[in-house]
Amino acid sequence: SQQGEEDPQALSIQEGENATMNCSYKTSINNLQWYRQNSGRGLVHLILIRSNEREKHSGRLRVTLDTSKKSSSLLITASRAADTASYFCATGGGATNKLIFGTGTLLAVQP
Amino acid sequence: GAVVSQHPSWVICKSGTSVKIECRSLDFQATTMFWYRQFPKQSLMLMATSNEGSKATYEQGVEKDKFLINHASLTLSTLTVTSAHPEDSSFYICSAPVPNAGGGTEAFFGQGTRLTVV
Predict the structure, then answer these.
(1) How many residue pairs from chains A and B have C-beta atoms closer than 8 A?
(2) By C-alpha distance, which of B77, B100, B95 is closest to B22?
(3) Cβ(A92)–Cβ(A98) below 8 Å
(4) Looking at CB atoms within 10 Å, which of A33, A89, B29, B74 has the fewest?
(5) pLDDT tens digit string along B57-110?
(6) A94 φψ region: left (φ > 0), alpha (ψ -120 to 50), beta (else)
(7) Which residues of B touch A50 (CB under 8 A)?
(8) B100 to chain A, minimum CA–CA distance in Å?
């Protein structure tokens, strides 16, 4: 199954700084979702943006979507050490509901 | 939110034996569940779609006779790794889709199972 590409693969920042992660995908989508995974754990849903939306906010999270470029970005503002995790974009859903995940970005927030 | 429970969280087994992993939806019914596999520092790779009351749908390259999936009820799907080998060692995660208020569906994940075959 096709996978989206995320960059950077790894990102290290200081607490309080903003973190931006990018996701590119290959097929047409109904929506794009972002998930977070703490080491060795399951994934937690963060935010969903529909194909007709360009930007969405949830707390310290800001997601953009550019369907013409088949890309999305996740911005975490005022990062905290507890934000340290891997972040994945996922596309799919639709009739089958199955999600295809991007390659992920490992974020490390230094206290 | 919806809760998906996966058991066991970790298991060590001998090469050649079989291991069963359970995925339960605790507070909702799931006619569909998904099984993923994740190698260290890599993304999740979809293995198969588990369908309640019917055969699972496997992704290309996944051996259905090796990874047996049973979805006998609306709240339970099981993945059995048969005749396990060291290369089957991985992190296995299940998920179940739930309609999202924002449109589409949101996936709720189990805690994952770390399988080590020795």
Answers:
(1) 75
(2) B77
(3) yes
(4) B29
(5) 999 999 999 999 999 899 999 999 999 999 999 999 999 988 877 666 788 999
(6) left
(7) 102-104
(8) 9
